[in-house]
Amino acid sequence: MAFQCIQAAFYMNLSGLISQVLLAKVDLNTKHGTTGIIPWDGSSEKKYKCLYCNHSCNIAWNMDRHMRTHTGEKPFECPQCPLKFVTKFNLETHFKTHTGEKPHACHLCSYRAVQKVCLKQHLLRKHSVSID
Prior knowledge:
Number of strands: 9
Largest sheet: 3 strands, antiparallel
Helix content: 25-40%
Structural class: alpha+beta
Strand content: 15-25%
Strand order of the largest sheet: 2-1-3
């Protein structure tokens, strides 16, 4: 079940609501004495709406990640250097620079890449090959 803030068009699931309350990011006591939260009505409208822009989505963790673009929060810290990241995926990708791991190999030459997207770009630019 999702819940909507009465004061803003923002939806969150119950675990998101609980974590926001625990982090004191949501005030459950409005001036009218209501909770400030109403259950999502199940419509086809996207459930989660950003408080700061017109972004919306149907998955809570997508909204959590999006909200970091506004808050600047980077909760994923590299254990090898001072860099911090918005997503765990970005940290894992960055960490490969410390290990030297390049798991994506070109089948036409000796090029190797940390990310699959970089291999795709290489194949297209250097070999005129497009892959899905």
